[in-house]
Structure formats: structure tokens, C-alpha cells
Amino acid sequence: MHFDTLTGRVVAPWDPGYDEARLDYNARFDDIHPSLIVFCETVQDVEEAVRWARRHRIRFRIRSGRHSYEAYSILNRGLVIDVSAINHIDYDPDCRTARIGAGAQLIDVYQTLWDQDQVTIPGGSCATVGIGGLTLGGGFGLVSRQFGLTIDAVEAIQMIDSRGSRVDASPWVHDDLFWALRGGGNNNFGVVTEFAFRTFPVGLVTIFSLQWPWSQLPQVLRTFQEWSDPDDLDRRITPILTLQSKQAGHVSIIGEFLGISAELEPLILPLLALPNRTAESIQEMTYIEAVKHFAGLGADPHRWLAHGVPDQDTFKNTSAYAYRIFSESAIRTIQDALSDTPGPSCLVQLGGFGGTIRNIEPEDTAFYHRRARSEMQYQAYWSDPAAGPAHIHWVEQFRRAMLPYTVGAYVNYCDARIRDWPEAYYGRNLHRLIRTKRRWDPANLFRYPQGLSELS
Ligand SMILES: Cc1cc2nc3c(=O)[nH]c(=O)nc-3n(C[C@H](O)[C@H](O)[C@H](O)COP(=O)(O)OP(=O)(O)OC[C@H]3O[C@@H](n4cnc5c(N)ncnc54)[C@H](O)[C@@H]3O)c2cc1C
Fold first, then answer.
1. 185 C-alpha to center of ligand 1: Å?
2. Are 210 and 136 contained in the same domain?
3. Which residue has its alpha carbon closest to ligand 1 atom 9?
4. Can you state the angle between helices 328-339 and 388-401, rounded to 10 degrees?
5. Predicted confidence (pLDDT) per residue in 51-86, tens digit
6. What angle separates helix 328-339 from helix 217-227, to the nearest 10 degrees?
């Protein structure tokens, strides 16, 4: 097989740097060995790569930031079309819009937009997540109740389709594709190369963090659910509740407020009234300082800014949505799961929905679960490989035990074990997505195990 017609930096198994080039953020998938990785530097490189894969009938995957929970952006014996080098961030101060290459990492997006005009887009908290994968699945973060999901700020998308040709999608041209890419776009319709975003001015924010002993879990969870009512809670606050394992010993609520601390304090009174608090922090800072705080950037932020191999973690995460306030039996189920964990780093998080996320109808973009009260993420982390199976089993058992009380799952927190993933991820938008897939990728060139290719 000749690959001399592929353009961009091509890395094969015998090349220096192959081992770095193939890795996913999740070390659980370190044994995946693609046949070739092409680091596309231009849109033309992407066109060549898609045409080459099609001509030679080579299986391939698309990759931006390498953070897929199930390593769906890499594969054994196939081509990886990597767009991480298409990472420009071009801001236009007159219209306050930004054209961003699909390979840009979130921290670069936030920093550049802040430096240029103190503006931002609503996105996730991890510094090295790719804007490509994040946006195509929805994109939730700590300013989402005010500014919406990442897709809600998208004005236009540029994509290379299954013929290897450039397509522009927006409300005015190819609006069916534009609809589908906003929530159902991961590796389904083409290789996205650029997004046009509208941006939002930001300045001073207040971040807060409150912690209680694990024994307070039922009370904290009940209060959080009532307080974070999607319609009533001030949309300038986006909160996250973290229920750690009993072994870890605590539960906490953190959040970001787009305003000053004097305004925040009355809004979180129900949380402050909860007894036995073990830690409390309420701090005003600039928006970009808050970004770095939630990204966990340590003393050496440059470590994160460098493109290349992301710091790895070994984990199994999965998801669901809470559409209703949990009953006492749901709370007991959560307590039981967290009291019997294979290690201390097992937890569940609830991210508050509502506000602007809810202003858009579930059928208006492919992202369906806008009516949820919160998104839920079950998580387990470990370092000893021998501990892997027990942690994976724990996550799966927890997710299953909660099924009577939850709905669906988030495609960006994808989980290979969810059997009814099409309905779980896409709800009532599934059939329209399948129709759009048939129109835009009739040969099912873009495939992966939880892709629309498996349904059409
Ligand atoms: C540590 C961590 C923190 C996270 N935090 C958040 C968060 O705060 N909020 C949130 O919403 N999500 C969060 N996520 C989930 C994240 O949104 C998804 O994992 C997302 O899909 C990652 O995108 P990526 O480009 O980094 O990953 P990749 O592995 O490169 O891609 C993910 C998926 O998108 C497809 N894809 C990637 N690029 C393209 C493209 N250009 N065109 C078409 N398809 C493409 C891939 O084929 C793959 O299926 C987090 C994940 C991790 C690991």
C-alpha cells in the first residue's frame, strides 16, 4: 500500500514518535495500534486523507483532542485522521465572532479570546480537550447555564464530506447538516475542520466550593436538587455536586457565578445553611483565572499549553441525566454504591442544567437532553492495572442500579457498555439523525462502534 499521496505529517509504526502519536488521554487504551496517523495541517490534507481512505477502502477514525472516553478516535489496523494541527483561533473584534480550527485545545481557545477582547465561548473545563470532539457532542461547562452549551454558540461549521469535498453548514446553507453536527457530529458525517462561534464578554467572576463529611450525603443531595431548580436558580450560576466514595469521605458543591461575591452569597444561602460544613471557599477572580482553576492547572501551565501527548489518566466514566428530583430510594441507591467501592477514587457528579440550555427546544439541535435537571457522570479512576476490572464493574453496576431514576446518556461521556446507546444519546432526535446520515454519508464511510453507521 502506497501512502505517498497522503499529505501532512504521516506517522507509521516504524517512525520515531509513533508511540506518542497513537495514544489516547485514557491509558486504558494504550494497546491500540493504528496502521498510520496523518497529522493534517491544512484543509487540503484532510481532503486528501478522506479520498485516500475511500480509494483504498481503509478503515479510519477522526481525531482532534484525543479525549474520547472509549478511544473512539483511534483504532487498530486503520488510519487516524488527526486535525490537532488545524488549531487557529481567529477573532474578529468587530462582530465578536471567532473562527476556530477543530483541533484547538480548550485552554488555548479560552486564553486567546480572553487576551484579545475578554470574551469567551461556553465550553468544558479540561484544558486539553479538543474543541472538535467537545462541540460535536454538545459541550457543557461552568458558564453553560448563562451562555448555553458549546453548540449554542456555533454559527457555522466547515466540514470535509465523504467525497473528500469541503462543505459549509449554517442556518442558511445545508441546515440539515448544521442541525445534525450540533450534538450528533462525532465521526458521523465528515471531518469537521472549523467552527465559527459567537463570543460572550466576560470579566470578574466568583467561584465557590463547599464541602461536607460523607455522612451528610443525603441532606446535601436533597438540598442541591431543590436549590438547583433549572427554572428558578439564577442562570449566572452553574453548579456541580460531587459525591465522593465513602472511602474518600466527603461530598462537595462547587460552582462559577458570573458576578461579584456580594451578589452570590444570598443566592447560595440554602447551601450555606447546611450544617457541619468542613471547608468553604468563595473567591472573586477574573474569568480566565477561574478557567485555569477548574482546569486544575498547576504551577507550570506551559506543560498544558504544549500540543502533543496529553497527560494520561486511567479511568472508566459513564453518564445519565436526572430529569426529576431523586426519590429516597434513588438516594439510598447512590449511598449504597458509594459505600462499597473498589477504591477511593469512585464518585458521581451532577452538573446543573437549566437556564439558557433549556431555552432551546430538544428538537432544535441534535443534542436532545435539554430538559434535564442535571447531567450525571459516574466515574472511577485507578493506577494499578489489576484494579481495572473491579472499577469498570463498579461503574457499570452503579449506572444500571440508577436506571429506574435516570434517563439517557451524554454522547461526549460515551460508554461502550450502553446497549441502547442510540436512544440514550439522541432521544427523539435519533430518526432525523439517521435520515441525515443517509443523505450525507450514503456509503457509510464514517464509522465507529457507536456511530450512526451502525443503524443506517
Ligand atoms: C478529562 C476530561 C474532561 C472532560 N470535561 C468535559 C467537560 O467539562 N464538558 C463536556 O461537555 N465534556 C467533557 N469531556 C468529554 C469531552 O467532551 C469528549 O470526550 C469529547 O468528545 C472529546 O473531544 P476530543 O476532540 O478531545 O477527543 P477525540 O478523542 O479526538 O474525539 C472524540 C470523538 O469526536 C470525534 N471527532 C473528533 N474530532 C472530530 C472532527 N474534527 N470531526 C468529526 N469528528 C470528530 C472522534 O472521532 C471521536 O468519536 C471531558 C473529557 C475528559 C477526558
1. 11
2. no
3. 124
4. 170
5. 999 999 999 999 999 999 999 999 999 999 999 999
6. 130
Instruction: Report how far residue 199's alpha carbon sits from residue 360's, in angstroms, rounded to the nearest whole number.
Output: 18
Q: Domain of 55: which CATH number? A: 3.30.43.10
222 CA to middle of ligand 1, Å?
31
Rounded Cα gap, residues 338 and 243, in angstroms: 8
Q: Whose CA is nearest to atom 17 of ligand 1?
A: 134
Q: Are strands 79-82 and 36-39 parallel, antiparallel or unpaired?
A: parallel
Place of cell 462543505: 167
Whether 376 is in a domain gets the answer yes
Atom of ligand 1 nearest to the CA of 190: 43
447, part of any domain: no
In angstroms, the CA 54 to CA 48 distance is: 10
- For 196, the 3-state DSSP assignment is strand
DSSP run (H or E) holding 177: helix 175-184
pLDDT in tens, 302-325: 444 444 455 788 999 999 999 999
d(CA 262, ligand 1 centre) in Å: 36
Q: Say what the pTM is.
A: 0.97
Phi, psi of 389 (to 5 degrees): -55, -40
DSSP track, 295-357: TT--S-THHHHS-SSPPPB-EEEEEEEE-SPPPHHHHHHHHHHHHS-SSS-EEEEEEE--THH
Q: Indicate if 76 and 94 belong to the same structural domain.
A: no
Q: Are residues 222 and 292 in the same domain?
A: yes
Q: What's the chain's length in residues?
A: 456
Q: Are 276 and 213 in contact (CB under 8 A)?
A: yes
**Alpha carbon distances (Å) from 70 to 10, 183, 232:** 24, 17, 36
Domain span at 51: 9-82
82, 101, 128 - which closes a domain = 82
Centre of ligand 1 to C-alpha 89, Å, is 18
